[in-house]
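note to self — DONT lose this again. spent like an hour looking for the file last time. sequence + predicted structure for the chain T wanted, 204 res
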Amino acid sequence: MEEEKEHEVDEIVERAVSHGRSVKDVLIEMKNTSELMVDLAYSSLLTNSREIAEEVQRLEKVMDDLQYEIEALLLLSARNVEEAADLAGILHVALAAENIADSAEDIIDVVIRGIGDHPIYQTMISESEEQIARIVVGPNSELVNKSLGELRLSKRIGAYIRAIRRGNRWIYHPDKKTVIKEGDILIVKGDKPAIESLRAMCSS
């Protein structure tokens, strides 16, 4: 098991080097991932949604890989002791993002263990103007093969797509050029009518 983990870490490091990703790129992705995890974790708790909780678990694996990647990049960037000391601040920020992600996983633990259905959460939902939902794009959806610019979802129904999971790849803050594909999992923010409208559009 330990050898398997070491091999996995080696692959992450090799990928980081071969793809030519910068420390800045990885740090931005860690920020986006941890922010999304917190939003999803609270949504999972408030709606007692195991599906959303499982998305948080998937993102935790992404964060673990990013942590290994940024550590590798920082080690490769340091040419001497002085530079290593300067880079320590960046590592501190990366570890803080990882801690935020860990906290999100702590929040969903009550949902995963089946003890998250409490009346207080229903009260919080009723008082919340916006919610976050996980919606799968079906094969007959009117969204398939259309860009967000064409769909104009925020203006039409008031729904905002925070992120898209396409297989194992995440698209954060999709823009108007982003094209929706069949099977995409949309992480959506909006009020209840907006989310229900988008859910209908994705399944029609």
